[in-house]
Fold:
Amino acid sequence: MERVIVLTSGKGGVGKTTTTANLAMALARAGHKVVAIDADIGLRNLDVVLGLENRIVYSLVDVVDGACRLKQALVKDKRVENLFLLPAAQTRTKDAVRPDQMKALCDELRADFDFVLVDSPAGIEGGFQNAASGADEALVVTTPDMSAVRDADRIIGMLESLDKHPIRLIVNRLRPNMVREGNMLDVSDVLDILAIDLIGVVPEDDNVVTSTNKGEPLTLNSISPAARAFDNISRRLVGEEVPFLEVDDMTSGGFMARIRRALGLKG
Amino acid sequence: MSFFKKLFGVGQSRQTAKERLQLVLIHDRADISPEVMENLRRDLIAVISTYMEIDDSNIELDLEREDRSVALVASIPIRNVRRNAKVADKGQ
Structure:
């Protein structure tokens, strides 16, 4: 049941790489054999977020060019069993890999892994097309703001035309307090607009910044709100029924939240 | 929720964002280019002009979302209705 999943967003800075790292870590900890591919050639970041930047010898482009074997380029995580990184090249451009090469690479990885997670570059050009070419399914990451949702809509259209299925949505960096005040799009608004299935909602969480500083994805050892959210997504990915957190459950719950609950005006 | 909004005067930019996004996405998804809109506008003017004299410099033409549906809304100021409009129509 090996699965190749592309993580994409259209807009940059919405948390694709953080999401990829955390899902890869969570899936590996749950016992699945996982490889995370950094398809953002020229702007690699997944290595840093995973804390594996010092152990890179070869890159994705070296594999495609035949400069090394696939197994030589895979960086094994020493903290958990079953987690590997295939890093991007930092000194090449996005056109260093063609879609057919990327597809062949993903297909080769299927033989050895349960999950192949492809971290796509932002944008809708060649880099995205490459990243998506080897994937069966897609996770679209957005934040609840206008420009990110608009770009997500565009990317969803392209993923549909590329026959990716299922295409599921992650709403990242939701700020529960702002949603409660009516000053941020709620998950229901985003779903109304984008009309695809939701697989997870991740609240804004300062721990994401500190975890990236340390190179330790939250799902390695944290129980912070974002860590729980990412962990839930990884469980939904393998078919578990995990209830979605309500906005009010994402923080300790303020005064207003309690009043609303008491009055039955939840949400 | 509206009760609390009124009581505490909290923001409503969520609703604004949603409505704006829905409108923007109508254009994005339909992929109606300014060129197509301009052609539509020109054709509309041509058809309507056979029946009435219109102020074609003040025509407003846009796609709007009303509740759950999309409408093409045109505001076309009329200067004068041609007296022989119906005759012209029958004559064709």
